[in-house]
C-alpha cells in the first residue's frame, strides 16, 4: 500500500485526476469505478477541467457505480445514480450508455446485486476504483464487520452512517436503511484502488486502515491485501499516522 500525504483536498483531487487522465490516455475505454460523497468532488472537478481543456478524452471511458440506496428511484435526486450523473458523468461528458450500476429498485434486490457483480467481471473488471472512507472505516457501504471476501449484496446501514449521510436529505427519516454495495472481495478485484480521505474526522479511520491489522472491523484495512492500492490523505486525515 502506498500512502501519499498531500497538503489539502484540492491537491489530492489533482493528483488522482492526473492518475485517471493518464489511465484514459493509455486505455481510452478504461472502466473507472467511482464513489459518491463529498470527498471525491475535487477529483471530479480536476478531471472535468482536463476534459474541458482537451488534455484528456473521455469519449470511450466507462463508469461503474460502487454502491446505491435501496428504494430510491433512478430519478430521485439523492439516488447515487442521479448523484453520479450530476457530479461525474455530465461534467466529464460521458453518457449514461457508458454507465453501469445496480438497480436499487429491483423487485429481487439480491438477484440485481448478483447480476451487477457478474456484469463487472464480464465488462473486463474495473481498471481504477476510487474510494472514499466512512468515519467508521467503511468503503462503499461495507460497514464494519463485513466479510473481507464479500460480493455485491444488500446491507443495512449503521445509525452512524445514516447520521453522516442525513445532510444530503431534508430529514434523517428519509435516509434509506438498506443499500446495495459492491462487496469487499468485489472491490479488491479492481486493478488499482485509490482511496482519498480528507479532514480530521477521517484521521482515526485512516490510521486503522493503514496501520491497524487487516480486520473486518475496519473494512478499508482490506486495501492492505491489494497489490496496487494508493491511499491519498491530506495533512488533517494523516494526523494520527
Ligand atoms: C457514503 C458512501 C461512501 C463514501 C462515504 C464517505 O457512505 N457510500 O462511498 O466513501 O459516504 O462520504 P464523504 O466523502 O462525504 O465523507
Number of domains: 1
Specify the helix fraction band: 25-40%
Give the overall silhouette.
Answer: globular
Mean pLDDT: 97
What small molecules are bound in this structure?
2-amino-2-deoxy-6-O-phosphono-alpha-D-glucopyranose
CATH second-level architecture? 3-Layer(aba) Sandwich
User: Which ranges are low-confidence, i.e. pLDDT below 50, for 5 or more consecutive residues?
Assistant: none
Q: Please report the first level of CATH classification, the CATH class.
A: Alpha Beta
Q: In DSSP terms, counting alpha (H) and pi (I) runs of 4 or more, how many helices? A: 7
CATH topology: Rossmann fold
- Distance linking N and C termini: 14 Å
Roughly what fraction of the amino acids lie in strands?
A: 15-25%
From the helix content, strand content and strand pairing, which structural class follows? alpha/beta
Please give the number of β-strands. 10
How are the strands of the largest sheet arranged? Answer: 1-10-9-6-2-3-5
Cα gyration radius (Å): 16 Å
Pathway: Amino-sugar metabolism; N-acetylneuraminate degradation; D-fructose 6-phosphate from N-acetylneuraminate: step 5/5
Domain Glucosamine/galactosamine-6-phosphate isomerase: 12-224
Family: Belongs to the glucosamine/galactosamine-6-phosphate isomerase family. NagB subfamily.
InterPro entries: Glc/Gal-6P_isomerase, Glucosamine6P_isomerase, Glucosamine6P_isomerase_CS, NagB/RpiA_transferase-like
Amino acid at each position: 500500500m502506498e500512502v501519499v500525504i498531500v497538503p489539502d483536498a484540492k491537491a489530492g483531487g489533482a493528483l488522482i485526476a492526473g492518475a485517471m487522465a493518464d489511465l484514459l490516455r493509455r486505455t481510452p475505454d478504461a472502466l473507472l469505478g467511482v464513489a459518491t460523497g463529498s470527498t471525491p468532488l475535487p477529483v471530479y472537478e480536476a478531471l472535468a477541467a482536463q476534459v474541458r481543456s482537451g488534455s484528456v478524452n473521455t469519449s470511450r471511458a466507462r463508469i461503474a457505480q460502487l454502491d446505491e440506496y435501496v428504494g430510491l428511484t433512478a430519478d430521485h435526486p439523492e439516488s447515487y445514480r442521479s448523484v453520479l450523473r450530476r457530479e461525474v458523468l455530465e461534467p466529464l461528458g460521458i453518457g449514461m450508455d457508458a454507465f453501469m450500476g445496480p438497480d436499487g429498485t429491483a423487485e429481487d434486490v439480491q438477484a440485481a446485486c448478483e447480476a451487477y457483480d457478474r456484469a463487472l467481471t464480464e465488462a473486463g473488471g474495473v481498471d481504477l476504483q476510487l474510494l472514499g472512507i466512512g468515519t467508521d472505516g467503511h468503503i462503499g457501504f461495507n460497514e464494519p464487520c463485513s466479510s473481507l471476501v464479500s460480493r455485491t449484496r444488500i446491507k443495512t446501514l449503521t445509525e452512524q452512517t445514516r447520521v453522516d449521510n442525513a445532510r444530503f436529505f431534508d430529514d434523517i427519516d428519509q435516509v434509506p436503511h438498506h443499500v446495495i454495495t459492491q462487496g469487499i472481495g468485489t472491490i479488491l478485484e479492481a486493478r488499482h484502488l485509490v482511496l482519498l480521505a480528507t479532514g480530521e474526522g477521517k484521521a482515526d479511520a485512516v490510521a486503522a486502515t493503514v496501520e491497524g491489522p487487516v480486520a473486518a472491523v475496519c473494512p478499508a484495512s482490506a486495501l492492505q491485501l491489494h497489490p496496487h492500492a494508493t491511499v491519498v490523505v491530506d495533512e488533517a486525515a494523516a494526523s494520527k499516522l
